[in-house]
């Protein structure tokens, strides 16, 4: 199973927007770019909402049939480890193996010694085509990489082999994710992380590193776009070089997590992909859930009222809802509008606050982030909420399709918003 050059992770927390998501991919294909969907939903989201992994497979299969999709498609067991992977094995063919919790934990001294010994040929000045400077590699540096990352990669290997024993080698797409950690990986670190991946025998097809700056849920990139450009291009060069040196899969590519709404980065990524003739996997996750809330607000009446109730409950349960996402949100709690104020908003006022239109003076990035993590509130509403999604499926679907196509796919894969 070989993942295509361009792919996009389309999360769908309430498993209703698969066809709307797929229509956006059909539109971008007509415009000149083939991008395949990867429906992803983490174990955390399944637990919070009360769904099971099989529901994502059912949604994906139904969307493909409804839309007449002719290309590959995937179902991602998102951010799994040994403790959670088994419930995903039957329904998934893409596995995001999350190693963030193991970064910095020590493996045995013998394993570190063996890793360092195997990499001694790179000590000195390392030249990588596409990077305009040499990378310094010392024995001490190699040991530091081993001490920081080797145990994490060993854990990824254990998960990979567990999946392979159940599904068979070559019958799924493995990704290694190291993005939810505090410090970004340098190009030199990424090169030797990939060396460790190869030594562990994991045929990864995507890798999600940590970049400098903040990739927050549902809002634009926070950080230096010039620094991101340098890091992203360096990582593309490292991957191309590592494929040759370590016999990794030739389609190995970068994966950008929390990639939705990073509008300031899409032109940079587009140009870099063209420069290096590289692929990418972009994970958009909860942007579809936000479009559902936007669609309800646009519908008015009871649907608008429910959107306001979701916000009010999220405001009241701030600590509980934000706790699992503290590394990927940045909310100024004091700046949040009160539920009382929001209860008096018109449909248009609510839409101006939540829609990610940075040119709108009423756009509220704090409110948008809070609602992003507030899907548990909607799940607890049960049929009251999901019945409204079904009743207003047309306007919601239009929002979902337009958001993914016009604001994500076009600037990233076509390079133009015209």
What's this, in brief?
Helix content is 51%, strand content 11%. The chain is built from 17 helices and ten strands.
Description:
With 418 residues, the protein is α/β, with parallel strands linked by helices. The chain has two domains: 292 residues, TIM Barrel, CATH 3.20.20; 108 residues, no CATH class. The chain is built from 17 helices and ten strands. The strands form two sheets. It has an eight-stranded parallel barrel, surrounded by five helices. A two-stranded antiparallel sheet has the order 5-6. The longest helix is centred in the middle third of the chain and has 29 residues. It starts with 5 loop residues before the first strand and ends with a helix.
CATH homology superfamily name of the largest domain: Aldolase class I
Query: What is the domain total for the residues?
Result: 2
Taken in chain order, the helices and strands follow as EHEHHEEHEEHEHEHEHEHHHHHHHHH
- Highest-level CATH class of the largest domain: Alpha Beta
Mean pLDDT across all amino acids: 95
**Tally of individual helices:** 17
Topology:
Layout: E1 6-9, H1 18-31, E2 36-42, H2 43-49, H3 53-67, E3 74-80, E4 94-98, H4 109-118, E5 124-126, E6 135-137, H5 139-167, E7 173-177, H6 187-199, E8 206-208, H7 225-246, E9 253-256, H8 266-276, E10 280-283, H9 287-299, H10 301-316, H11 318-322, H12 339-343, H13 347-354, H14 365-372, H15 375-380, H16 383-391, H17 393-414
Parallel strand pairs: 1-2, 1-10, 2-3, 3-4, 4-7, 7-8, 8-9, 9-10
Antiparallel strand pairs: 5-6
